[in-house]
Design goal:
524 residues, 14% strand, two-stranded antiparallel ribbon
């Protein structure tokens, strides 16, 4: 799509009145609450799903590469923010042995097919938390900040007077952003100032005109559909408490592209102050206004009721009101509300969805985990997350009494330090501990219990959780692996840019050998 056609689509988005859109979403929240009360969002059992994001690189150089839109269609993947991104969403499956095998098989089948298409074009899809090598001949700064401007005629109306008309406005389009109008609208709506559009992390300070810097990051997102929708808050509050420990296990983005670091930042400074999961801070600083308090991307508060979950989404700040058409699907009854999910950015978030009444569901999307080195590692997080929600909830695990502030502190400590973070946990016997081995012994025991209760054998449970147990035993995460490799290169006299290139190439090489059949445990 050219800039002119994109600008035309953007006109339609910017013509939507934010206040009216929000009012409709609030009205539609009543439809969801009524559906919950009538059992429309219940399931016969827990169901799991998965979102998996990738970025494309040149197969020879490992430099970032744009994915032609026709290739995305051939792959059967979806657009994400940047032209280099591709996303897969799996089909929901029951939480049992067959359902988990189906999840993994679907990921493998679709990813193999996508890789065949990409390889024919001299590309590879990489599963990683954050890219560090920009496209050939470009700096990361140029790629992330390049824009064009267009003038639009945008409709406007006065609700009070009933008068209507148009006005001209100049919009800014990110050159390397996907052509979905909602992505570009973030920088051009009347609420654009609610987004920070900056990178602000140790030794990196970049200001942009669009949300394009968010395209540095990629993630995996396990989904858990609760059996009984009114019980969602119980599951949700446990998910909030496991967010820190699971993030600490999954950290995978300790570095940004070399040219984004501030002038004068020595490699030793970058290494000393590096966070293990910069993806968290990138998402927050790009999409949050630093002067506006908590911001839209944040660690969520506990829920008291499912009605409160619905209300939070409906009344959330409307950053990008989108045009909504008529339809006869079940979820067209709350189409404005559904649109709000797209910018309801919480690290753990409730979702109410379903194209028909039988498919309607209340689920919890778990968003802290970056994309992992291999498929097996990625599936391990899906399985651990689902097993934990099953067991902690059904056994009424005492960690539910862990103060919310401590759960939040755990999360950001994990962002900074990974497995070295000082995490506080309450074990099954009610004891408070900061001992890493005790924390994860309790977590894995309950993940095992939850999976066993869904019919998995001991051997199946052990195989799924092995990649994560190995990380705890060795004290080694993907982020620490990257960090140590870069530190060794710098100690040998290599520049930061050179060290990052060595690390990124090694990551790609190791992944090529293990993506489908191995795990990160095979890298060490």
């Amino acid at each position: 799509m050219g800039a002119e056609e994109l600008a035309s689509r953007l006109e339609e988005v910017l013509a939507v009145d934010a206040e009216s859109f929000r009012d409709r979403a609030i009205e539609e929240a009543d439809v969801i609450v009524e559906g919950i009360e009538s059992g429309a969002f219940d399931n016969p059992q827990a169901i799991v799903g998965f979102e998996y994001e990738f970025y494309a690189i040149d197969a020879e150089t490992a430099a970032l590469k744009r994915v032609p839109r026709r290739l995305l269609e051939l792959m059967g993947f979806e657009k994400e923010l940047g032209l280099h991104n591709a996303e897969m969403t799996t089909s929901p499956q029951p939480l049992n042995a067959d359902g988990l095998r189906a999840q993994e098989s679907e990921i493998l089948a679709r990813l193999r097919a996508a890789e065949n298409v990409a390889n024919a074009e001299g590309m590879r899809l990489v599963s990683d938390g954050l890219w560090t090598l920009p496209p050939a001949g470009e700096s990361a700064y140029e790629y992330l900040t390049d824009t064009v401007e267009r003038t639009l005629e945008v409709g406007n109306s006065s609700v009070a007077s009933g008068e209507a008309g148009t006005n001209s406005r100049t919009v800014t389009l990110a050159t390397n952003m996907s052509d979905a109008a909602r992505y570009h609208a973030m920088a051009n709506t009347d609420r654009a100032e609610a987004a920070g559009m900056v990178l602000d992390c140790p030794h990196v300070s970049l200001a942009a005109e669009t949300a394009m810097p968010e395209s540095l990051i990629t993630s995996i997102q396990p989904h858990y559909q609760v059996p009984h929708a009114p019980d969602l808050p119980t599951y949700f509050n446990y998910a909030v408490r496991i967010a820190g420990p699971l993030l600490a296990l999954g950290v995978n983005s300790p570095f940004l592209p070399a040219d984004l670091y501030d002038d004068g930042a020595a490699p030793e400074d970058v290494l000393r102050d590096a966070w293990m999961e910069h993806r968290i801070s990138i998402f927050e600083t790009v999409l949050n206004d630093p002067s506006a308090g908590a911001g839209k991307v944040r660690f969520p508060h506990d829920l008291e009721s499912v009605e409160e979950a619905v209300e939070r989404i409906a009344t959330d700040d409307t950053l990008v009101p989108m045009p909504v058409g008529d339809g006869d699907r079940f979820d067209d009854q709350f189409a404005h509300f559904r649109r709000k999910h797209g910018t309801y950015w919480r690290w753990v978030r409730p979702v109410f969805d379903g194209s028909n009444r039988s498919a309607a569901n209340a689920r919890i999307e778990f968003r802290p985990i970056p994309a992992q080195p291999t498929v097996r590692d990625s599936v391990a997080f899906l399985v651990a997350y689902a097993g934990l929600l099953e067991s902690l909830t059904h056994l009424e695990h005492p960690v539910r009494e862990l103060d919310w502030e401590i759960a939040r502190e755990n999360f950001y400590a994990a962002m900074r330090d990974g497995l070295a973070a000082d995490l506080e946990w309450i074990t099954n016997d009610g004891q408070t501990t900061n001992d890493t081995e005790s924390v994860y012994a309790d977590l894995f025991a309950h993940a095992e219990d939850g999976l066993s209760s869904r019919g998995l054998t001991d051997e199946e449970v052990a195989a799924y959780l092995h990649p994560l147990r190995r990380r705890v035993r060795q004290g080694l995460t993907p982020a620490r692996w990257k960090y140590e490799l870069v530190a060794d290169e710098v100690a040998s006299g290599e520049s930061l840019a050179g060290a990052l290139e060595v690390m990124q190439r090694r990551y790609v090489e190791q992944q090529a050998e293990t993506l489908f059949e191995g795990s990160f445990a095979d890298w060490t």
